[in-house]
TrEMBL record:
Name used for this protein in its record: Adenylate kinase isoenzyme 1 (AK 1) (ATP-AMP transphosphorylase 1) (ATP:AMP phosphotransferase) (Adenylate monophosphate kinase) (Myokinase)
Superkingdom of origin organism: Eukaryota
Family: Belongs to the NDK family.
Organism: Durusdinium trenchii
Length: 196
């Protein structure tokens, strides 16, 4: 059968709109706190790059700015977690994208410790993505039209996570408008006492 996690892992979800800087913050957190950083966007780009038929299906969703279907995301994510179970402490970057994804994950894979939400305005996110598109072209989803769609999907599908985790005490918010270093100072407070 399918491989499973043998021990309950430590899991933090990192959510925020497109281009808010999730990847940037997770890279810093993983180094300081010895966490396995899994970006669902990166997992899917790797599947696309492999040239598999599943990758072909994933690319259609990414290029349009819509969410990749839950069963695909959950399967790739679980595989990656099982491969890293010797460490078993995870920062999930860009996951979940909806309350449904969160519920499925917590039901089928593991309980989450908290959701780290990086808050930034649409203008800030658009500017950052435009900056990335210039310095680093080649992402199928960094053009203006797809970015508009990704922002819409974020507002309608991902934002409800804040009201889902807030009332049960599992929401941690950071203001993502500032420089990467200033944003990081806010983020790391939520981890600091945990593994010392
Ligand atoms: P992602 O790969 O998650 O793309 P993102 O939201 O643009 O990334 P991020 O917020 O990490 O931005 P970054 O740090 O790079 O998703 C892409 C697509 O994959 C989705 O649209 C969807 O189709 C699919 N997908 C992913 N996860 C899914 C899921 N769970 N379910 C279904 N579908 C899913 O920062 C962006 C830029 O800003 C960089 O150039 C960076 O240098 C700059 N920057 C970062 N922080 C800054 C700061 N503080 N100040 C100034 N610039 C900053």
């Amino acid at each position: 059968g399918e491989a499973e996690l043998n021990t309950p892992p430590f899991v933090v979800f990192v959510a925020g709109g497109p281009g808010c800087g999730k990847g940037t913050q997770c890279t810093k957190l993983r180094e300081e706190f010895n966490l396995i950083h899994l970006s669902t966007g990166d997992l899917m780009r790797a599947e696309v790059a492999s040239g598999s038929s599943l990758g072909g299906e994933i690319e259609k969703h990414m290029a349009s700015g819509s969410l990749v279907p839950d069963e695909i995301v959950l399967k790739l994510l679980k595989n990656a977690m099982v491969k890293n179970q010797d460490t078993n402490r995870f920062l999930l970057d860009g996951f979940p994208r909806s309350v449904e994804q969160a519920q499925q994950f917590e039901r089928d894979i593991a309980e989450v410790s908290f959701l780290l939400y990086l808050e930034a305005s649409h203008d800030t996110m658009k500017q950052r993505i435009q900056g990335r598109a210039q310095s680093n072209p080649g992402r199928v989803d960094d053009n203006d039209e797809t970015v508009r769609k990704r922002l819409e999907v974020f507002d309608s599908q991902t934002m409800p996570l804040v009201n889902y985790y807030g009332p049960i005490g599992k929401l941690r918010k950071a203001n993502a408008e500032k420089s990467p270093e200033v944003v990081y100072a806010e983020c790391k407070r939520f981890f600091s006492c945990r593994f010392l």
